[in-house]
Specification:
This protein is mainly alpha-helical and 335 residues long. Helices cover 64% and strands 9% of the residues. The chain has a 3-stranded mixed β-sheet, covered by helices on one side. It is elongated, with a radius of gyration of 27 Å.
């Protein structure tokens, strides 16, 4: 399966759906003159722009590494999420302003029944498309697809709130429900736009993904070999779907270059099997010292100076530190 092509196909589906739904929503606004419906339609315009940019980012992320981008182009997906969040944030501020004016100067809502029918249809389509994109994005490790799907979920929720507002207007005759719903949607959209921007900035700044780091550590711990005396300075960076992992492994100092290379290959193969994405590993082999004897249970070690006392369990708290592990002072005194 060509993963890059598959991602682009899902991105194209999202773009086509967004274009179709924005036309339906503006037709619903033409029929109803509802402020809540207009709010929903304006947010859907954002869907078109963001889906288009997401499609471009998926195409670019699928390009191979080159001299100018030795780590690939995967980070463009995070930029796509940030772009989407920024547009949502701007739209939310405008919607909040427009809804405030509508509260101060309310106007009648026409044909709410047609508005509800059309918006209900768009909500179902958005929910279905959003579910498909999120599920596919997680399976393909694409933050752009997941972000686009989450946005469609939010759009569907906004549409349902607009429908409720139209129902309340139709039942009570009070048009303030319409403007009030638009005001609430404006606040909701601003908050979610900010969250998307925050998530994008964190990823672009290489903020550590604790879940992925824990998975890497757990895999090393689960299949630990006696020759892997210690792991430290572990770092995991995500470039789109790709993972780049750096770590230091302390091994017996008397190992030949060939033996050390064999152990490093085992580690790389183990991690690549665990993550169904492209994994690039840079493992630095450190020679052991006699201070590590009490942590090492290497069988038949010809140079052991101290008996084995305790194995250090690798965790998120100790494997990421740039320092070799040692026994607690209590255990050191016993030695």
């Amino acid at each position: 399966m060509n993963i890059a092509k598959t991602k682009s196909q899902f991105g194209l589906i999202s773009l086509l759906v967004s274009i179709g739904l924005v036309g339906i929503k503006f037709y619903a606004y033409y029929l109803t003159a509802s402020q809540a419906v207009l709010t929903d339609a304006l947010e859907s315009i954002i869907n078109v722009f963001t889906s288009g940019f997401a499609l471009y980012s998926l195409y670019l992320a699928g390009q191979p590494k080159d001299e100018n981008h030795p780590y690939g182009h995967g980070k463009i997906e995070y930029l796509s999420v940030g772009f989407e969040g920024a547009l949502i944030l701007i739209a939310g501020v405008y919607i909040f302003y427009s809804a405030t004016l509508a509260l101060l100067h309310p106007h009648a809502v026409a044909r709410p029944d047609w508005g509800m029918a059309l918006l209900g249809f768009t909500a179902l389509v958005n929910l279905g498309t959003g579910f498909m994109l999120i599920r596919s994005g997680k399976r393909l490790s694409s933050v752009a697809l997941v972000g686009d799907g989450q946005h469609l979920y939010l759009d569907a929720l906004s549409t349902l709130i607009s429908c409720v507002a139209l129902v309340l207007v139709a039942v009570t005759g009070n048009v303030l429900f319409d403007a009030g719903a638009a005001l609430g949607l404006g606040i909701f959209i601003v908050v979610n736009g900010y969250r998307m921007v925050r998530r994008s900035v964190s990823a672009l700044m290489d903020e550590a993904d604790a879940t992925v780091v824990r998975d890497v550590i757990a895999e090393l711990q689960r299949y630990r070999q006696p020759a892997w005396i210690d792991v430290h300075n572990l770092r995991v960076l995500r470039y789109g779907a790709d993972l780049h992992i750096d770590c230091h492994i302390q091994m017996p100092y008397y190992f030949s270059l060939e033996e050390t290379h064999t152990e490093l290959n085992k580690i790389e193969h183990l991690i690549r099997q665990r993550f169904d994405v492209e994994v690039e590993m840079f493992v630095h082999a450190d020679p052991c010292t006699f201070a590590a004897c009490s942590l090492c249970h290497m069988p038949n070690c010809p140079v052991r100076q101290h008996p084995f006392a305790q194995e250090v369990t690798w965790t998120l708290g100790n494997a990421v530190k740039n320092e070799r592990h040692h026994l607690t002072p209590e255990l050191e005194e016993k030695q």
